[in-house]
């Protein structure tokens, strides 16, 4: 910036540019008097004399009066939210203050958050992009939650997440366990939601997917998982050891989900948690412009969807058949949970067919019970029709003796009853 655009205040309301100060001194060196300099420059003689006495210094600027910003009205709210929940995302907080009337931009929010919680630097990472329909990434993340239906009880739940590598379309479900049946149910539901399947599914070394690896690096996958993926035309792929960053497309969303969805919410139970998550997933996560691709996730998915392997007509329905014993309470244990059989069940051992989402119980080849699979452990499900209403108990009533009628022993009446039943005379 040229020096003559810099300005100073002489203390009496007169604005003097630095170039004009230089001119005053130059005219003085040419032999002009203070009065002559004042006439030429148009300044007061006191002003000319002051700058001649002061010399040529950089002007001192008066501080600008602070201007109020749109974000300032929401600073206290944002500061409080970040104090209570340090990891809340900027997008989440922007939505919250928009509902309160904020009409400013997103950058103002992120600038404010940067002041409140300065972020640490991170190493640069290489991006791995996949073509449409090529790959999905799967993993579990642990969350701790206190359901309002169970005051004072804290539970661990796991979020199963599947993310399409190209479009970043995400599907997920919170589960009470990470067992094989849960994994299979989640895969079936995810493929149904996307209307097809990718060529391959990338896994970390999760036990339900990868059983082991030999010295030559050949990976052994869970046979049940291979069968399920093969039904949809897909195949498993293991993440390279100690290189979980190759699964960044699914692991980064876990942080996004925690910050933008999970924090600062309340949930009645697991069903309510999943219902709220589905609303958020479809209305916000898949409706947003992705920071890396720069595209709306749902729109990118609609372009990727035709490239996916077409879903088979019938959903995967593998059956694990086992024999189980009926307890004295009329319950059968399957996968750590308990399912009822009807009171009319005669046999003490029954056949159980464990489907991905159903438990079916058979007695002598006849279906006697059909239950949805329960999430978690040590849960019980009793079908209302399996239990008969108890027979009301009749209290014994003492009969007063009738005068002139002899009292006979109970054995006499039993003998009469038997003879009547066989057609004999009394």
Give an overview of the whole structure.
32% of the residues lie in helices and 20% in strands. It has 426 residues and is of the alpha+beta class. It has 4 domains: 3-54, Homeodomain-like (Arc Repressor Mutant, subunit A, Orthogonal Bundle), CATH 1.10.10.60; 70-116; 135-310, Ribonuclease H-like superfamily/Ribonuclease H (Nucleotidyltransferase, domain 5, 2-Layer Sandwich); 320-386, no CATH class. The protein has a 5-stranded mixed sheet, sandwiched between helices. The protein has a 4-stranded antiparallel sheet with strand order 12-15-16-17, with no helix packed on it. A 3-stranded mixed sheet has the order 13-14-18, with no helix packed on it.
Percent range for β-strand residues: 15-25%
**Strands in their spatial order, largest beta sheet:** 5-4-3-7-10
Helix-strand sequence: EEHHHHHHEEEHEEEEHEHHHEEEEEEEEH
Instruction: Provide a count of the helices.
Output: 12
The CATH architecture of the largest domain can be given as 2-Layer Sandwich
Number of strands: 18
Helix content: 25-40%
CATH class (first level) name of the largest domain: Alpha Beta
